[in-house]
What does this fold into?
Amino acid sequence: MKKRIAVVMGGTTSEHNISLKSGAVVIKNLSSDIFDVTAVIVSKSGWMALHNGHQISIDLKTFSYVFDKKTYCFDAVFNAVHGAPGENGELQKVLENANIPFTGCSAEVSRLTYNKHQTLAFLAPYGIAMATNHLLHKDDEWDKEVLVDKIGLPCFVKANKAGSSYGVVKVHKINDMEDAIRTALLEDDQVLIERFLSGTEVSIGVIEYRGEVVVLPPTEIIANGDFFDYQAKYEGNSQEITPARLSELQLNNLNTAAKKVFTTLGAKGFSRSDFIFLSDIPYFLELNSIPGLTEESLLPQQARHAGINLGDLFADMIYSCLKNNTFEA
It folds into this structure.
């Protein structure tokens, strides 16, 4: 009998439409001979299953829905939601409470990795190189002179809990700091200010595949603009070279760091981490626990270079979460 799989996509943040594209890629690559797949769209107005042309509300207590007096349940959930509620632990908590297996990180790990500053603080004792940074809360008082003295210029001002480069500004002049912080606060109530590192930027996927943690070939990022922003990521305003042009030492250091980040954080399924090289040392920027899966996204490129078909990867993730269906109440 086919396994009933919900592919959950959308979300309640600015990444909603990107997530819809990722979810469509997942559905496209899941074999209909093996899986009975239902799309579940999350938005600010609700969580809706798409069933025979109808949109039906999901019962979050059981993560099921009723159509024509029949209840439809799921054997597992493929999480393709970028941002909230798919990367911040909300969706995972719903599924853990309903005892539904799901791909990707647990609720606890998702809450951690969605918070850039907490992720950096968690990894700091483990010898992971990272840039000097400072966290501001929405109501904090701050002085731009003090911030610049601590962090330096140029610097990055980022929404602490957001993805796809929403709420990210590169600040070159001290008088631009206030506008940058205001932009970041449109996405989140916390702002991460981080020292600019000038070096080769790379992004690298780490996956669990056939029972092993596999580090994928990294991608070198050459942004045509000032940095790897939304336009660079999704509108072709960058060069993406896979595999990255790294020395053997750099590649070994990167693979070691990427795998260490993945395992230390307790990530599951797949992730994509961003690094900047200073000389031969990769400096960790952030981890995406639900990386983009659109046609333009990096992880699909890297999987292809590793000889891994997306359909095989997605199916393996589903079988893995079904096998490891053990939750604490």
